[in-house]
Amino acid sequence: MNQRxxxxxxxxxxxxxxxxxxxxxxxxxxxxxxxxHVAKHCALTAATLxxxxxxxxxxxxxxxxxxxxxxxxxxxxxxxxxPADHPDASSPYRLP
Length: 96
Hints:
This is ArsR family transcriptional regulator. By secondary structure, the protein is of the alpha+beta class. It is 32% helix and 15% strand.
């Protein structure tokens, strides 16, 4: 069951990002988790999570990164999110 967006704390969303990372639900090519990945570990929809994840990245708690969505047959590039302290968030292979 999905909860009201305001009733889910930022800490719960960050925990869901960590859970998605630990579960291997992330993109290829140093990419982070997508809102759909986080939604598996949180009581919000992917659509609602998009804005919350962007807000957390603007506050510096997450880093928005480019990755490759390997579930897409065309391997489309998509923006994902990593915890700010994740080693791939500041990878030397990442473009500024």
